[in-house]
């Protein structure tokens, strides 16, 4: 079974469980903590993916790291995933959990890259425009990319709006690169 299917199924099962118990927001914070910890610690990620380290050793290491910081349900879930020998996909499961949580709560993530830090007014206008288009709640993730020169690039799912000066310069470069006086074969 592909890792994405495994991650999706485990995330869905955990989402249903914590939703039933009314601990959805608590589990979301736990999964964000798990992602942050595993992503920042390469040794931990390698340990989780290692077939050499025994399952019980991995469980004890995960308990020593997370037991004080995760809720009881999340810790039991992490232990279960590890005992089922799926700990190598724990990071993907946590990411999939967050994606399914956002879908369930009708939260759309919009990524905006701009040449400089956006002003509060610009953020509000972008949020208003995106909210009118998609409905629900919009979560805006910002990135500063000085290569854009000016303007911004807005991504929502698989759609992109590029109003950057860099895109316009590249478009002009392609247009001027064409030689209209030579017949193309």
Question: What would you say this structure looks like, in words?
Answer:
- The protein has 185 residues and is an alpha+beta fold.
- Helix content is 60%, strand content 14%.
- The chain has eight helices and four strands, in the order ααααααβαβββα.
- Strand 3 and strand 4 form a beta hairpin.
- The longest helix has 19 residues.
- The N and C termini lie far apart (49 Å).
- The model has no long low-confidence stretch (mean pLDDT 91).
Short summary of the structure?
The protein is of the alpha+beta class and 185 residues long. The protein is built from eight helices and four strands, in the order H-H-H-H-H-H-E-H-E-E-E-H. A four-stranded mixed beta sheet has the order 2-1-3-4.
Outline the secondary-structure elements:
Elements: H1 3-21, H2 24-40, H3 42-49, H4 55-66, H5 72-83, H6 90-104, E1 107-114, H7 120-134, E2 137-144, E3 152-156, E4 159-162, H8 165-177
Parallel strand pairs: 1-2
Antiparallel strand pairs: 1-3, 3-4
Helix pairs in contact: 1-6, 2-6, 4-5
């Amino acid at each position: 079974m592909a890792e994405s299917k495994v991650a999706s199924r485990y995330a869905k099962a955990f989402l249903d469980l914590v939703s039933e118990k009314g601990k959805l927001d608590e589990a979301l914070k736990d999964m964000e903590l798990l992602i942050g910890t595993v992503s920042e610690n390469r040794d931990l990620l390698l340990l989780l993916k290692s077939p050499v380290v025994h399952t019980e050793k991995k469980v004890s290491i995960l308990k020593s790291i997370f037991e004080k910081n995760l809720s009881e349900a999340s810790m039991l879930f992490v232990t279960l995933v590890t005992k089922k020998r799926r700990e190598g996909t724990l990071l993907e499961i946590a990411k999939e959990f967050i994606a399914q949580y956002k879908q369930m709560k009708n939260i759309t993530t919009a990524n905006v890259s701009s040449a400089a830090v956006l002003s509060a007014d610009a953020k509000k206008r972008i949020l208003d425009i995106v909210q009118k288009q998609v409905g629900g709640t919009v979560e805006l993730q910002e990135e500063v990319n000085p290569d854009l020169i000016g303007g911004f690039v807005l991504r929502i799912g698989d759609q992109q709006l590029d109003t950057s000066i860099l895109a316009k310069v590249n478009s002009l470069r392609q247009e001027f690169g064409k030689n209209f006086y030579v017949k193309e074969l």
